[in-house]
Amino acid sequence: MLYNPLFQNREAAGVELAQAIRTELNKQAVETGLKPIPIVYALPRGGLPVALPVARLLDCPMNIEVAKKITHPQNEELAIGAVTASGSVIWSENKVFRFKFYSREKRQASLNAAMECAVDLKAQLSSACPTVNVEGKTILLIDDGIATGMTIAVAATALRKLNPAQIWLCTPVAPQKLIPWLYKWGEKAIVLATPKSFLSVSNFYVEFPQVKTQEALEYLQQQSVKG
């Protein structure tokens, strides 16, 4: 199946997303009489170049929530769940994928491997993360695209424990059929494009290189620390 790229790269998509988010924040301020106080959280590593233009436009802090897919023991391309570095976990609603073909021990091993990866990445990036108080504020949780939704959902689950006023799930592209499900995890979903046919996030970008850990650190360092 052929796809027409929608965005030149993550940074360009982030600029468009920033405008859409600012419009929604202003709209909510008019409707409620209360101006939301935003704090950007990116899913590293790919979410950071998208999130930086948002944090810059809104002049707010940018932090991270690290989440990793839990992969099927027999198929590393198949996500059966997701876990954050802090230990929040969600599993696929498809129980056939989760339980039918492998043991509880193998499932636990996959969970442990994903969490170890998440903890390691968070440790590498934590030195560049600001200390912020999100209680009563609006978290803008950003990724470069949503395919299954599990990583952004588990990240939202973890951030909900910090008692924000709202969590908005924000991304340049996600499958149309997934949008209603996203509202299970956040008060608002801001998605620039919702194609019906969806195989991989990378198909919607002209340039979609892997973001290295050092690059992720540099994105965090580019945004001023605000509390």
Explain how this protein is built.
- By secondary structure, this protein is of the alpha/beta class.
- The protein is 38% helix and 20% strand.
- The chain is built from seven helices and eight strands, in the order αβαββββααβαβαβα.
- The protein has helices spanning 10-32, 48-58, 95-99, 104-125, 150-160, 179-182, 213-222; strands at residues 38-42, 62-64, 67-72, 75-84, 89-91, 138-142, 166-173, 188-193.
- Strands 2-1-6-7-8 form a five-stranded parallel β-sheet, with helices on both faces. A three-stranded antiparallel β-sheet has the order 3-4-5.
- Strand 6 (138-142), helix 5 (150-160) and strand 7 (166-173) form a beta-alpha-beta unit.
- The protein is globular, with a radius of gyration of 17 Å.
- The model has no long low-confidence stretch (mean pLDDT 92).
List the topology elements:
Elements: H1 10-32, E1 38-42, H2 48-58, E2 62-64, E3 67-72, E4 75-84, E5 89-91, H3 95-99, H4 104-125, E6 138-142, H5 150-160, E7 166-173, H6 179-182, E8 188-193, H7 213-222
Parallel strand pairs: 1-2, 1-6, 6-7, 7-8
Antiparallel strand pairs: 3-4, 4-5
